[in-house]
NAD(P)H-quinone oxidoreductase subunit 1 (Medicago truncatula), 635 residues
Amino acid sequence: MNVPATRKDLMIVNMGPQHPSMHGVLRLIVTLDGEDVIDCEPILGYLHRGMEKIAENRTIIQYLPYVTRWDYLATMFTEAITVNGPEQLGNIQVPKRMKLKLIVEMIIDTTEVQDINYFSGLESFKEVYGILWILVPILILVLGITISVLAIVWLEREISAGIQQRIGPEYAGPFGILQALADGTKLLFKENLIPSRGDIRLFSIGPSISVISILISYSVIPFGYNFVLSDFNIGVFLWIAISSIAPIGLLMSGYGSNNKYSFLGGLRAAAQSISYEIPLTLCVLSISLRLSNSLSTVDIVDAQSKYGFWGWNLWRQPIGFIVFLISSLAECERLPFDLPEAEEELVAGYQTEYSGIRFGLFYVASYLNLLISSLFVTVLYLGGSNISIPYIFVSEFFEINKTYGVFGTTIDLFITIDLFITLAKTYFFLFVSIITRWSLPRLRMDQLLNLGWKFLLPISLERNKTKIFIDIYDMFLMVTGFMNYGQQTVRAARYIGQSFIIILSHANRLPVTIQYPYEKLITSERFRGRIHFEFDKCIACEVCVRVCPIDLPVVDWKLETDIRKKRLLNYSIDFGICIFCGNCIEYCPTNCLSMTEEYELSTYDRHELNYNQIALGRLPMSVIDDYTIRTIQIK
């Protein structure tokens, strides 16, 4: 049926699916006059045109450019063809109101489809996201360890400054807390020097072995309730096995440096590690087999938590606690056990030839080892996150539902409290190790080995008794022939206690350090000092300009090209601005600067300042010999 061309009020509707995947389904072109059907013409769709073959093996994103290239919505909506295609194929345009309605519906439908596709994509990448989620706790642990190391460095500097009655770091950040970060940043940009005749491979991988072996040990530390990276059945022995690898890295670094001092430092590190690894292992073995019946760090903490404060292994094995503490300090190479890097003997030991980031790795490794040792002291002997203290009902005060999460997350508030308790105990032992550094002198190598093999090893072998009196009795029976060690132990304990008392008494005193002057001081009225300059000695090096805090000296010079030297033209200092810090005088290489008399004399002649007996208040001899003069005693 043909429709007259003059009829403009007729509507032509395309009926039937036109999606390419329908493979040529019959479509109908219907002509409507209001609600009456005037004409209906059957037309095959895309059949035999090749379009359905193009879309047959493609996704919707791939075949859309073929079928919707004329559609203004193709770049916005993936379902535009199913909605807008019929109007385009039927050569009709819907009213503007209907077009806006279609756009709104397509926005809603497209959002739902995109959400479905997004979550289906997550399912397809489930394994990738699983790997990423495994890395999240590892990155959190590394970040926490890094912050802890920065805090330890700042704490050691502040405590050391207090003990030595000086002012510690105070300019890098609030209270100087960013000083360690500034030092680490400086090491990142320093040049990495490699010895010309050294073993480059051993020299390069030595620091990495030391750091990585210590970082892996943090994976078995239970920081709180269900707050451990990996709960191995052999967690404690895993720490001992992995920490034994670190001295190998030190020995490789010393050997690869081609330096006798570095090699001696590496040998000392290996010998020291072997000597104190055995007593430390025996201490862990006695706790695992006799007290906890498990090698898991989580089980060891749980075994101590059953009996509260008096269930800590500290009370059950006090001698073992002392042996473990001494052995852990020796493993960390802290004073008085810092023989592998003794400055007075080996320059810097195995670190002598290192610079830049490699030196920074050794620096970080030492503090990482100190932190992990303090954490294991807390876990093995102080109950970990257990805070059961007699007469203080802390457990009732912190009675919190363990299923409660902060802000609806899976992070437990109880974990935060446990973490705080664990770190508080850990930092207490860090404080003890820092105090020990400034209290005790360095041991000799023979004294260090004798302490490990002849004293700590016999004690650790007989440490399995739980009663302290039986433990001490068997200890002295084991060291028959070395009875003098008992007297030496008592004497050493007394001396160590006295040194701790002296050190702690100095910590309360005010610092006596004179701060560097950054502004002009108000001098006395009798001050007449000035800087004297000798023109002939000056070589125009401008060292005084660089060391002056206010850049005060003015040096004018000219380069003599024939002799390639500087010739001084003028030198001046404005004494109205000078703060008289004396840096220019101290650093001048030719001593052309000197300070005159700072104060005017109280007499016109310097010789008048030499006091004799008369000037000191005594009578002259001629007066004393006169018999007419008698001394009168007033009663």
